[in-house]
Amino acid sequence: MSTPEKLGLMLFAIAIFAVVFIGILLLAARFSGRTGERIQAASFVLPTLLFILVGLIYPALLTIRDSFKEDAGGGFGLANYVDIFTQEQNLIVLRNTALWVILVPVLATGIGLLYALVVDRTPWEKVAKALVFLPMAISMVGASIIWKFVYEYKPSFRDQIGVLNAVLKTVGIEPKQFLLDVPMNTFYLIIVMVWIQAGFAMTILSAAIKAIPDDIIEASQLDGVNPVQRFRYVTMPAIRPAVVVVLTTIGIGTLKVFDIVRTMTGGQYETSIIANEFYDAFFRYNRPGLAAAFAVLLFLLVIPIVTYNVIQMRKDA
Amino acid sequence: MGTIPNPVDGEDIHEEVREETRVGDKTSATGTGKTPGKKRRTASGSASQAKNFLSSPGASLVAIVIAALWTLPTIGLLVTSFREQRDINNTGWWTSFTNPGSYTLENYQAALRPGDSASMVDYFVNSIVIVLPAVLLPLLLASLAAYAFAWIDFPGRNWLFVAVFALQIVPLQVALVPLLRLYTDAGVEGTYWTVWISHTIFALPLAVFLIHNFMKEIPASLMEAARVDGAGHVRIFFQLLMPLIGPALASFGIFQFLWVWNDLLVSLVFLGGTPDVAPITVRIAELSGSRGSAWHVLSAGAFISMIVPVAVFLGLQRYFVRGLLAGGLKG
User: Fold this and answer.
1) Is A76 touching B (CB cutoff 8 A)?
2) Which value does ipTM take for this structure?
3) What are the residue boundaries of the structural domains of chain A, listed by start?
4) What are the residue boundaries of the ABC transmembrane type-1 domain, all occurrences included (chain B) (predicted)?
5) C or N: which end of chain B has fewer Cβ atoms within 10 Å?
């Protein structure tokens, strides 16, 4: 397809969507009274419900079913789940996922909070925040390319073009292939996600810090607490709900992240995580049952994070 | 922004971000609890008394180190994208500052030249073609549904709304493979229709929830007045509500725009990597795997893909931040 054809198709699609939905509405508007009310409600809600039912709920149920379907033979059983929890390769995947889901939220929230505190009410606050926030706007693929270049390796007799290895060489350490360096390479990938998410943590926590009422701060000053105590006993309790939200939101996002591992290592060198393994199981190993089991596992792992969030919120309420 | 006062019109970013939290608190998927205290500090009000460990030289150093770590990697690749292939592979990008004459636009020219092996043009066009319907369709559908959930009384309304809300926690991975089969059965596999529809589906639970919250804030008296005047739901929706919730639609629209533009997984699953349909993220991820050391291609391509979201971010920061705070992370 040529570019004008593509753009034409796009406009056509938008026009079709608009005509169909507005047509339904105008038709529904012609009815009045109690029945009319019902018909109008249906024409407002049913398109969305239909999309969700056919595109989300039904496929999710199929995936749950497929996760019990054995890839070899086609019988039903727990074989796929047994594979996930017993095969060594998959145990590495689970371990890596755990590392990601614990380290990324903690580090991103910690750094975001620290940064929000140190730039709070400084003259350059606005610019300083934009710098850390910007990685949030670009794609994870773009961020992965940026960091792959930071980790770039050349044999030690050559000039290094990756900034990290150049630093290592300058201080007299042998340059290394960061992304091939098992098991540390998982941490090098985690850094990329932390780099992306810290801006999100900073934005929300900064807003929470600014929302602390003046009188509380003033009272603590009158009581003569030092800044560290103030952080411990005033700031932290006040922003706790926001911290929980940031931790859990980043945790859920991290669980599902696929782009970084895919772009930087393709899941090789023991860096794979569940979201990447789901893709590989289906498209590379031709194991749809195993892929479905990984997807279901992903879903199951979201639940404790959401539950933790709800419990914490109840406590604070 | 129309005629109603917009709560986030403040020029000062502090004011703005504070408002964003308010919105976020109310709308976050998982509930953010309450912002403690009602009395909010003004940006300048307590600046003088804000003497704390944060204004020490140590704090400034921490700020500078973090800011540098968060900027330097991007600058490195940006500088690299303006260097010649030979230079990129032989010397560090930081050495180029001593030889400013060596910069070139060749990498970008190659990326923008149709037919060049490094060309990004087709993929860039695909990204645009994918993103616009994938933003407009969920916006329209979610606004309609949100209106009904907020203002039309129909049986099952409450539990349906809760069900839609709860579906936000379902990771899209659980739907991908069966959807792929559905598209194949329908004969639309590998076309834009698959991603337009998929992005719409995955956006709906969050979009309905967010837009519903904004719609609920419209005073009931206003709605009743319109009803008494004999206006039907369809008319109220288009003539009264759409203009009023414009800012809310904009912030969700931008959020969805960035999400779709930056997406890799959905496009990879449904479109594969052909220049006919694949977006630019898919192309760059693919190049990273197959030509991992072709930094002249990768750097220019990566920045071409980033121009759009960064422009959106810089130009519409206010809406962007609001969308983000309100929505958290989707996926």
Assistant:
1) no
2) 0.91
3) 3-52, 87-316
4) 124-316
5) N
